[in-house]
Design a protein that fits this description.
alpha+beta; six-stranded mixed beta sheet; 28 strands; 37% helix; globular; binds adenosine monophosphate
């Protein structure tokens, strides 16, 4: 079995790690970085880029550069209202009312885009480890619901990865803590990333960790902070020049980029200057924006967002039935946890110094790698019990929500509910499954209507159907049903409405694998052409430098060889032919150089 990799599939950046003889290590990507931007860009010619290259084209091609895809994973279009102003590409409503992205006349689903990021991480891992990688652990925000987890798993499958486990990001960070420290304490994992915020309270008893409570907000992250600064910059421009340029996508993208840079600078400096030359033009010439943003101004505008994180911390403590004094350490995770005011608020709330020993960008991937080590049997005697962050239940009479598995229940968990029919000979029963904490069914997230089909005809109320609701270790919901009269698992089949069907996932996986193969073939051809070109340059240099001492027939043969090589380069798309020409040019050069200087020819 090859290595299992741990992947932190982030809103802004992704990180991949593995276990190397009981030590977690971050995998270096193809560009030499430890972090890969979670960005996918498409060129006009249909080429696709992932990571740093895609991020670079975001400014000039905002329509065709997809970032923050995680905010749309497993979301219905109508649930994505808050996320839409954060992006400049086109988000559409697709099948099952899910979100899609329209680029270059094609629509992509969020799992497909995420799969492209995962494919890149997989490739980097294979290059780095020198072996095929087929299995992975992927992390998700603790507050991801079933649909979002399912979509993440689908993304892994499309990318050709067998996703062995989906784990919660703060739980992964707690695993990293547990692996490193193994001392008894109660810790709070404060995870503030690019698109989400999670707080988990974890009780650690030497090598056993138990998540006591977890809270979060899936629409609260660095992107929301950038949006605030971006709006402020747009307002500065409007005040100075008297008109609004927020409708221009390229301007918005440049402002968003400048906003993030200003935010990063303000984590170290007390003020920052924003300079955006040639933003737009009027009859009087180009217009620029130059202004100063102080840390105090920034903190004032972002404070309401920062305070939301503290509200969640309070609720998490209440859920865990603990007081601030019970918390021994606070582990800071995620890029946004570097903001000085955020650190101050957390320190003031918990009245404890913060544990900043872990790299907030990498600790989640490190934890995922440790989970991989546990599954591989490499990491022993570390156990972490996780909980479900959302209550699972069904809709009952009066559009009410009946909880079956309350939030903060240790997973895997299972509950059984008996259901029956309401009319004579009823053959199907529909069960509306939801996740959330609200009393009214409609105020919670609908996972869909599960349909139990094939019930034996019987008087109303007679069938006794046992429906099992389970949440597995991935936090993924499964529903199974059994007619207790029939005994056997029965003829009851369940139709569960999820984002992508199994068949669609399989088709997309094949498509992605074909794309990968085509890319490999194209890269191999590029490399071959490069080799032929290199031999030609060597021969040209040789002719220029040694032409005078060569025999006439050699010069003419050399010119013929150059012609043949150039012809092959421009005309041939046949791999074997190019290989032959390349090898032949090399042999020819060796032959000539040996003729001139028999002792110095390099073989
Ligand atoms: P993550 O999802 O953990 O990769 O976090 C990414 C988010 O953290 C992005 O919104 C970044 O702009 C933000 N971030 C990273 N470093 C800093 C920093 N030094 N100060 C403020 N925000 C940061």
């Amino acid at each position: 079995m090859g290595k299992i990799i741990g992947i932190d599939l982030g809103t802004t950046n992704s990180v991949c790690a593995y276990m190397d003889r009981n030590e977690p290590r971050v995998i270096i990507n193809e560009e030499g970085g430890r972090i890969t931007p979670s960005v996918v860009g498409f060129s006009k010619g249909g080429e696709r880029f992932v990571g740093d290259i895609a991020k670079r084209q975001m400014l000039i091609n905002p329509d065709a550069t997809i970032h923050s895809v995680k905010r749309f994973m497993g979301k219905r279009f109508r649930e994505a209202g808050k996320d839409l102003p954060l992006v400049n590409y086109k988000v559409t409503e697709e099948k099952n009312s899910e979100c899609g992205f329209e680029v270059g006349g094609r629509t992509y689903t969020p799992p497909e885009i995420s799969a492209m990021i995962l494919q890149k991480l997989k490739r980097s891992a294979e290059d780095f480890l020198g072996e095929a990688v087929t299995e992975a652990i992927i992390t998700v925000p603790a507050h991801f619901n079933d649909r979002q987890r399912q979509a993440t798993k689908d993304a892994g499958t499309i990318a050709g990865l067998n996703v062995l486990r989906i784990i919660n990001e703060p739980t992964a960070a707690a695993l990293a803590y547990l692996h490193d420290r193994r001392k008894s304490s109660t810790i709070a994992v404060f995870d503030f990333g690019g698109g989400t915020f999670d707080i988990s309270i974890v009780q650690i008893d030497r090598d056993l960790g138990e998540v006591r409570a977890t809270r979060g907000n899936n629409a609260l992250g660095g992107g929301d902070i950038d949006k605030l600064i971006m709006d402020w910059l747009l307002e500065q421009f409007r005040r100075e020049h008297g008109f609004d340029i927020s409708g221009d996508k390229v301007v918005r993208q440049r402002m968003r980029d400048a906003a993030e840079r200003a935010k990063l600078e303000l984590s170290a400096a007390l003020d920052t200057e924003v300079q955006l030359p040639f933003l737009t033009a009027t009859q009087d010439g180009p217009l620029h924006l130059q202004c100063t943003l102080t840390r105090a101004q920034f903190e004032t505008m972002a404070l309401p967002l920062f305070e939301k994180t503290i509200e969640e911390c309070k609720r998490a403590l209440a859920d865990a039935r603990l007081n601030v004094e019970d918390i021994d350490e606070i582990v800071m995770v995620g890029g946004s946890s570097r903001i000085p005011r955020v650190k101050e608020l957390v320190r003031d709330f918990f009245r404890r110094p913060l544990n900043q020993a872990f790299n907030p960008d990498e600790v989640v991937a490190i934890g995922a790698a440790i989970q991989a080590g546990i599954l591989e049997g490499e990491v022993k005697s570390v156990t972490l019990l996780d909980v479900t962050s959302l209550s699972l239940g069904i809709e009952v009479e009066g559009r009410k929500f009946a909880k079956l598995i309350p939030k903060n229940t240790v997973i895997p968990a299972q509950r059984v509910q008996l259901v029956s029919t309401v009319v004579e000979n009823q053959r199907t029963v529909k069960i509306h499954v939801l996740q959330g904490e609200n009393a009214l069914a409609t105020d919670n997230t609908s996972l869909g209507e599960f349909e139990l089909c094939g019930i034996e005809p019987a008087p109303r109320g007679a069938p006794r159907i046992e429906v099992k609701f389970g949440i597995d270790a991935n936090g993924i919901v499964n529903v199974s049903a059994r007619d207790t009269r029939g005994g056997a698992h029965g003829n009851i089949t369940i139709q569960a409405p999820t984002g992508l069907s199994k068949l669609e996932v399989e088709q997309l996986r094949e498509e992605a694998a074909n794309y990968e193969r085509d890319q490999e073939a194209a890269t191999a051809m590029k490399e071959l052409r490069f080799q032929v070109e290199r031999h030609l340059v060597t021969l040209e240099t040789f002719l220029r430098e040694q032409g005078a001492v060569l025999h006439k027939t050699d010069v003419s043969e050399l010119e013929q060889a150059l012609k043949r090589g150039r012809m092959a380069l421009t005309k041939s798309s046949d791999k074997t032919n190019l290989e032959e020409v390349g090898a032949w040019l090399k042999r020819f050069y060796l032959h000539l150089s040996e003729k001139i200087n028999p002792s110095s020819a390099i073989h």
